[in-house]
Amino acid sequence: MTASNLTPRKQRIVAMAAVVVWVLAWVATQANPARADDPIGSSCGPNDSQRAHLTAYHGSRSLNPCISGTNLRLDIPRGPLNPACICYPRRFNVQEIRRIGQEDVQIGDKLVKLWHFSFKRFQIVDHGTINTTDGPGYTLSIKPKDFAQIGGANDSGTAMYTDLWIDKGTFSIAPLFGGIDIPEDSPLIEVVQGLDLVGTRLQLDIKYLVTYSDAPSDKGNFPVRLPNTELSIS
Hints:
By secondary structure, the chain is mainly beta. The chain has one domain (3-233). The chain has one helix at 8-28, and strands at 54-55, 62-63, 72-76, 92-107, 110-119, 121-124, 128-132, 139-144, 148-153, 159-174, 182-183, 195-213, 224-225, 229-233. The strands form 2 sheets. Strands 3, 4, 5, 6, 7, 8, 9, 10, 11, 12, 13 and 14 form a 12-stranded antiparallel sheet that branches. The chain has a two-stranded antiparallel ribbon with strand order 1-2. A hairpin with a 7-residue loop joins strand 10 (159-174) and strand 11 (182-183). It is globular, with a radius of gyration of 18 Å.
């Protein structure tokens, strides 16, 4: 089912449903999120003992989510090799990418080692998929005409950042490192800390993510922008 084959009314319904699936998949990675300065609400395990204790990179905001452990995979495949330049086509843009380091994160009754990354803005410029890999569910395919974006700035112009904690991942950055796939723990990532990059392939297994402002009191809009984007569900 694709939005391009439907009437305008049905296209809107499909688009809304796809965004809901995307959001629900995102929520699945953070079953009961809460900031340190928010009411905890329902207990996370016996005596609330299974709540994670994380710190966002920008503004050092404390986060106390109850993480479900669901694995959310973002996959942006590599395109065909262009023989004219012996290079691969651009697939994503990322602004101010940073690897913070490996951290012990409470998931259920276990401490799990995850890699903490942060970025200001992320754009899919060709196509990608989002799906859960450890249970039944939907796969959301995203095919933007120009870009599909998370983060950047909210409607009032305030900078928004996204932190994510991943189990594993691979990155291919153009034109650095010859287009090879770089794993999440590679020393090569230190070379690009804080930079704006163009990528040709990406796969991330995400356990938790959060989008926020570096001003702790700011409760502005957390943007996901999908202009002229074809969405399909399978």
